[in-house]
Amino acid sequence: MALDQLSVTLAAIADPTRRAILERLADGETTVGELARPFEMSLPAISKHLKVLEQAGLIERGRDAQWRPCRIAAGPLKEVADWVGRYRRHWEERLDRLDEYLRELQNRESQNRQPKTKEKKHGRKKK
Amino acid sequence: MAAKRNSSLNESAGRELVINRIFDAPRELVWNAWTEPEHLMRWWGPKDFTSPACKIDLRVGGKYLFCMRSPEGREFWSTGVYREIVEPERLVWTDSFADEKGNPVPASHYGMPGDWPEEMLVTITFEERDGKTRMTLRHVGLPPEMGEMAEAGWNGSLDKLAETLEKEKSI
Question: Which residues does chain A have within 8 Å of residue B43's beta carbon, measured at their own beta carbons?
Answer without folding.
Answer: 94, 97-98, 100-101
